[in-house]
Amino acid sequence: MKKIVSLILSLSLILALAACGGTSGTSESPTQNSDTPAQTTPAQAEEVEVVVFAAASMEATLTQIADLYKEVAPNVKLTFTFDSSGTLKTQIEEGAVCDLFISAAQKQMNQLDSADTTGTNEGLDFVQSDSRINFVENKVVLAVPDDNPKDIQSFSDLATDKLSLLCLGNDDVPVGAYSLQILDTLGIDITALEADGKVTYASNVSEVANQVKEGAVDCGIIYATDAFTYELTVVDQATAEMCDQVIYPAAVMKCGGSEASQAAAQAFLDYLHTDADAIAVLEGVGFTVIQ
């Protein structure tokens, strides 16, 4: 009888220990205990939208670079608006959200920058001045349609009977302002050309390039990069004596969507002028990246 009781007690002790071991193993498994938090992986970075306003002449290159940037910052959504720098400046002034502004001339950036020392500022304070850089340089060229039916070979030909119709950017568009400087330097009277019906105007440089490409005009004054993008024939290039140096400033704006989007805009700007792949795209179409 004592042996039976001892055996029963031993079996009870073994079963109790096994039960404790099973409970211990279960408590370590998050799938078995709803009170235990499930293990988590590091959270992916939240998506941030960066609104970029850029000169129309940068559309092809920035669109291409945006695809490259997806590999660098997959959480950043780049939203572009391309137009004349004057139009973009006005939109910013009127309250548009903009994290990064790239202008085709200093004038429009200066107008928005309270730190401007040239006297151009209009009492506006939209630019994070410490972020502002001279980004790229472009060239102003005279482009003609395929086969150049009017045989225009230089800016000087714009004062001859060879010209029937010239396309320029409006005077509030940087390429239009550069064009007027060139004509003035060469002594070509724009008022006389207008009176003779030899000038038509476009709201941005892409429109000028399109009119040349379609053969709607005899020639147009555009940027070298647009001539490359639209595969146009260039017959002349402005020298330093003809017009101002074509510098594109870029800066993060105070009218951005949020602190996160402004920080992401700064990161994208840094990438644009330091990354080898981005620089290769820009210089491949004729821009010179300013270091």
From TrEMBL:
Residues 1-18 form the signal peptide. Molybdate binds at residues 57, 85, 205, 223. Residues 25-42 have a biased composition (Polar residues). One of its GO terms (molecular function) is metal ion binding. It comes from the Bacteria. InterPro entries: ModA, ModA/WtpA. Residues 24-43 are annotated as: Disordered. Keywords: Metal-binding, Molybdenum, Signal. One of its GO terms (biological process) is molybdate ion transport. PANTHER family: MOLYBDATE-BINDING PERIPLASMIC PROTEIN, SULFATE-BINDING PROTEIN. Belongs to the bacterial solute-binding protein ModA family. This is Molybdate ABC transporter substrate-binding protein. It comes from Candidatus Flavonifractor intestinigallinarum.
